[in-house]
Amino acid sequence: MITLLSKFYWRLFGWKITGTLPKELQQMILVIAPHTNWTDLFIGFAARHYLKIPHAKLLAKKELFDGVFGKWLIKLGGIPVDRSGKLGLVDQVVNYFNKNDKFIIGLSPEGTRKRVDKLKTGFYHMAKNANVPIVLIGFDYKNKRVIIGETIYPSASEENDFKKIISFFSSIEGAKPQYDLRHLKES
User: Fold this and answer.
1) Nearest Cα to 136, choosing from 167, 157, 113, 159?
2) Contact between residue 148 and residue 56 where contact means Cβ atoms under 8 Å apart
């Protein structure tokens, strides 16, 4: 149902994809931003459909997986994570990568739909510890495009890697421009 609604929303508003997802990669973290509105969910699910990566997963706190809603979340590709467990979130995701030869996960580097002054770093440490690449994906509401950007392999310089990441996202206008990441370029 969500994919059907997402495709309808996508077509109704005239969204397009620019760039190419590296299909040869079986494991990657899709870092998706700016995340400023609930409609990002529709854009994300439609893009997942059109990019032909229905196996791409998303993280959610384990409490959301209780009851009927949990079954629906799993069907959508949700993976429960225990934010208070022995293993931290980064290690839980690294374990998923280690146990699955084909594993793609999408994350928002802001961790919220509000304005942030810096990105969270968990996605970067997940990629580095699991030895998988990061693919940058921008939701450009101004031009109605999902932009597939650079593939980044975490290097010895986290600072330089984050400069590339911020440079990419700071040129993209989100659904709510006051919450997007364009102000980070000046930092």
Assistant:
1) 167
2) no
Render pLDDT for 10-22 as a digit per residue (tens, 0 to 9). Answer: 788 888 999 999 9
Residues 6+ apart with CB under 8 A from 11: none
Residue 84 and residue 149 in contact, taking contact as beta carbons nearer than 8 Å = no
Residue 115 lies in a domain: yes
Contact 18, 146 (CB under 8 A): yes
Containing domain of residue 91, as a range? Answer: 14-33+50-186
Q: Is residue 21 part of a domain?
A: yes
Question: Is the preceding omega at residue 133 within 30 degrees of 0, hence cis?
Answer: no
Nearest-angstrom CA–CA distance, 81 and 90? 10
Neighbours of 26 (CB within 10 A): 12
